[in-house]
From TrEMBL:
One cellular-component annotation, GO: cytoplasm
Name of the coding gene: carB
The name this protein goes by in its record: Carbamoyl-phosphate synthase large subunit
Organism: Pedobacter aquae
Domain ATP-grasp: 133-328, 676-867
Keyword Repeat: yes
Amino acid sequence: MPKDTSIKSILIIGSGPIIIGQACEFDYAGSQAALSLKDEGIEVSIINSNPATIMTDKVIADHVYLKPLTVASIEEILQERKIDAVLPTMGGQTALNLAIEAEERGIWEKYNVRIVGVDTAAIEKTENREAFRQLMVDIGIGVAKSKIANSFLEGKEAAQEIGFPLVIRPSYTLGGYGGGFVHKKEDFDAALSHGLQASPTHEVLVEQAVLGWKEYELELLRDNKDNVIIICSIENFDPMGIHTGDSITVAPAMTLSDRCYQDMRNQAIKMMRAIGNFAGGCNVQFSVNPANDEIIAIEINPRVSRSSALASKATGYPIAKIAAKLAIGYNLDELENQITKTTSAYFEPTIDYVIVKVPRWNFDKFKGANTELGLQMKSVGEVMAIGRSFIEALQKACQSLEIGRAGLGADGRENRNIEDIMHKLEHPSWDRLFAIKDALRMGVPIESVRKVTKIDKWFLNQIQELVTLEQELKRYNLNNIPKDIFLTVKQKGFSDVQIAWILGNVTEDEVYDRRKELGLNRVYKMVDTCAAEFPAQTPYYYSTYEGENESRPSDKKKIIVLGSGPNRIGQGIEFDYSCVHGLIAAGQEGYEAIMVNCNPETVSTDFNMADKLYFEPVFWEHVREIIDLEKPEGVIVQLGGQTALKMAEKLHEKGIKIIGTSYDNMDIAEDRGRFSDLLKELNIPYPRYGVAEDAEEAIKVASEVGYPVLVRPSYVLGGQGMSIVINDEDLERAVVKLLGDLPGNRVLIDHFLDRAEEAESDSIFDGEDVHIIGLMEHIEPAGIHSGDSFSVLPPFNLSAGVIAKMEEYTEKLARALDIRGLMNIQFAIKNEDVYVIEANPRASRTVPFIAKAYDVPYINIATKVMLGTKKLKDFTIERKLEGYAIKEPVFSHHKFPEIQKELGPEMKSTGEAIRFIKSLEDPYFIQLYKEKSMYLSK
């Protein structure tokens, strides 16, 4: 059936601010769906309150509504615009819940709007735990023994009937919120109460715990003819008991027998057909008993899920894009494969490589948090790596995480405390993968590791191979390693840094040079969805060590954009937004735009966004070899946050051109000591400061600058490690901890301006003119990280004199640092005196917010200025903001109820929303100001 021509306009509901459990994978899905529908000539409107995402940009949709995700907001849109259909499956649980609420209130019927892409009855069947269990029983699908409970008494009765250990799963929650395992009777009452409170319907499923069983996921698509295809099988490295969002996952499944896989396929298709009559995507999760291959169904999500983004990037099959077309009536056999352009979308993808996803946590931001992993998701991001083998992909994933590891061990950071290692194996946390490697390295038998972790022996054998290979490599020195052994080592994913550490007394560069002498070059393979059966038209690559190099550089002038790596607190989707606009701008200026990134959740790693995509770690060795191959005009580091910026020194050392601001000028801004010296030279006020390399020196500096002092390391993002202290004892403790966490770093001691206001500016400088993008005033006082502060654009309570000083200092610094492109400056204001706290010579987290508020494509403009192809005078900039825009930080503290919620200099928010007000008389603003600004005597 061709598309439904009665649908002329569609509303896509977004997922709102990023929180733990619902991150930017839904913005990726929404962006894909919007572009897919626009291709069909359909007018696309989007409602989403997240200003940091490319999804809420006019390059994605015809109409963008940056409004709170409420039924009232939806009704406002429906009154303003003729909408034929709503697509709620691209915005996670938030969008689905909102669509159901609107349906229950009769909104869709009132405005004659159809829900497409999902059957709301299907949502009820899947989210209501008892309804799902009963449906599975009815269609003959195995499920764990369970019982629904709507009260404390019913829960107790269920536990008595099922027995321990058991699982509590609240209905209608996201990311496993409120759920957990209960191993013994004494812990049950508290866990049950928490689960009942977490569920919006005060309902939980009390279920038999299948701890130690294996966990799998299948991604499915179905069309209007009831054709179903399996896009991808995904196996969890971790056994049942750890939320899939916190599990290391592998695609395709590695340890699944063919018989069991075929059975699982049939059950998944049966489940999808049973939950409702809809065309679109679906995710099904299963558990398998390793002893006998018994399969039970865990859950089914009739929407794009967290795993859909991973499956799309893993296979090259754009699930959200195809699902959007299915929602408007197309069938799978009527659509083309987006990569080959010759085969049908009805072909199931086939891959000849291995994908590994490893989550990224930020437990360092949540002091005192329970870091043990379980049913409730706690990770803030993830990386994906592609290799020809599981172990190669796993090592590349470890290199992508940006936690200071050069791969899976062999980098000088091994744990040698056997008691600590065994504890980590038994109590999984963010570093259990590394503990497994350490245990095997210290001689712990594989079977002992398997019994403690319940991880399949096949995976453990793979890691044991690394240990064996390390021992073999130690027999040689750099100059006598046999070429075949050197090749094997590289094929197993070992970085040059790891090899240098294993050999000892050699550098990374020496290893690099030696393997080049031996002709051991990284080659690039194409992601083609069909294991090379048909030629691919889309340049989407990963690296490995074998024969043919499939990435053939063109003779065009090229620009490489370095991405921001995994999402974490302090570096989120706003930098991906910047990278996407950078790619678009470079393309507009006639460059071949090449993207390097490893985050599967983001739009920048969509193979349609760049002229060429390298899905590789933003890790020096990988970046260096891509540059060696492509020989670009230069590399853009300004758009990828601290990840890309950290690469600037290496690029500078190797003589590789950095597009935009020079390395030395970026270093002045990043090095707190050099920067303060510059401020002094420019006669710009700044807090008194000093630099220390140990606690004794820090105490001396503090006595000179005066307490309270702000203690912080150089070169960090999101306020990592910052604290405010008021005496020598606290200072000594803070400095010792800092130097322990970040060895080799210097500590900066600034006098803290107590009870000062905080503001910031974002600007663009082209070498001649300065354009101040926006001035923002924070409602919270100085001392609370800017990312955790409510920010108001334009300033609402700063005098003309203060604003003039902020503008003056912005221009002075832009000229002194010879900025090309973007710069963010943070100010403290006390008694009408303006102090500069810091300057960031790059895209900041606030630029997307300002761009959306003023409706100006600032990143696009800044990129063209960086490239030197345009000057500011070439642009006509018209701002459209009426009244004020407020940036609202959003937190995920509900995931860590045990931690202290107080805010400070270290950023803790996971996302943000935007809100527009017409005037300061708005009741929302008055209440906000009252709550946040009681410290002010205004």
